[in-house]
C-alpha cells in the first residue's frame, strides 16, 4: 500500500473518530453539503469511496492480465486516470 493511501486512510479514521465524539445533531445538516461543495471547488480531484473500489477492480484486472499476484500503478496520475479522474493543469 502506498504512503499517500495510508495517510488518507489514517486521516479519514481520525475524522471519523472525532465525529463519533459529537452528540447527535451537533453537525448541522447543511455542513456535509457545504464540505462537499468546498472540496469540489478546489480544482483538485476528489476521490470518493466508489472511486477506490473502481481503482481496486482495475488493479486486480491488470494483475490477472499480467499474471501477477498484485498490480499497483506507479503514479498518482495513472491511478486517477484509472478511476476516471484527472489532475487539473497547474500554472
Write the layout of secondary structure elements.
Layout: H1 3-21, H2 29-41, H3 49-66, H4 76-82
Q: In brief, what are we looking at here?
A:
By secondary structure, this protein is mainly α. The chain has helices at 3-21, 29-41, 49-66, 76-82. The longest helix is centred in the N-terminal third of the chain and has 19 residues, at 3-21.
Task: Write up this protein.
With 91 residues, this protein is mainly α. Helix content is 63%, strand content 0%. The longest helix has 19 residues, at 3-21. It is elongated. It starts with a helix and ends in a 9-residue tail after the last helix. The model has no long low-confidence stretch (mean pLDDT 86).
Q: What's the alpha carbon Rg, rounded to whole Å?
A: 16 Å
Number of strands: 0
User: What does the main sheet amount to?
Assistant: none
Specify the structural class.
Answer: mainly alpha
* Distance between the first and last residues' Cα: 30 Å
Portion of residues in helices? Answer: 55-70%
Mean pLDDT score, rounded? 86
Q: What amount of the residues lies in strands?
A: under 5%
- Report the principal-axis shape: elongated
Query: Helical segment tally?
Result: 4
Taken in chain order, the helices and strands follow as: HHHH
Weakly predicted, low-confidence segments: none
Sum up the structure in keywords.
91 residues; mainly alpha; 4 helices
